[in-house]
Specification:
This protein has 99 residues and is an alpha+beta fold. It has three helices and five strands.
Length: 99
């Protein structure tokens, strides 16, 4: 990760917001490059109660019932190490998690 993280916005599904006791949008400091893995690692570090809810604890794979969207695109089947769209990396658009 870079020394200067960027502010990435994440919108969690309702049930995960309740579990983590957060509002609609969570802003996280994520280092470059901004990838699904980097965002989810940061999310789980800041909200440990979410560990195992979005990704399987043993494999690190995204759970099949959780979908990730950004910039009107389904990113669910992209590699977790692919860079997210620039609009997400700059905080202009959120990464959306849906069930």
């Amino acid at each position: 990760m870079s020394e200067h993280p960027v502010a990435v916005k994440v919108v969690l599904p309702y049930h995960l917001r309740n579990l983590a006791h957060v509002g609609g949008v969570v802003t996280l400091p994520v280092g470059m490059p901004v990838t699904q893995r980097a965002v989810l690692d940061t999310l789980e570090r800041h909200y440990p109660v979410l560990c195992g809810t979005i990704r399987d604890r043993s494999t690190g794979q995204r759970r099949a019932f959780v979908r990730l969207f950004a910039c009107e695109r389904d990113l669910s089947h992209d590699s977790p190490d692919d860079p997210l769209p620039e609009a997400v990396a700059t905080g202009a658009e959120p990464l959306l998690g849906r069930r």
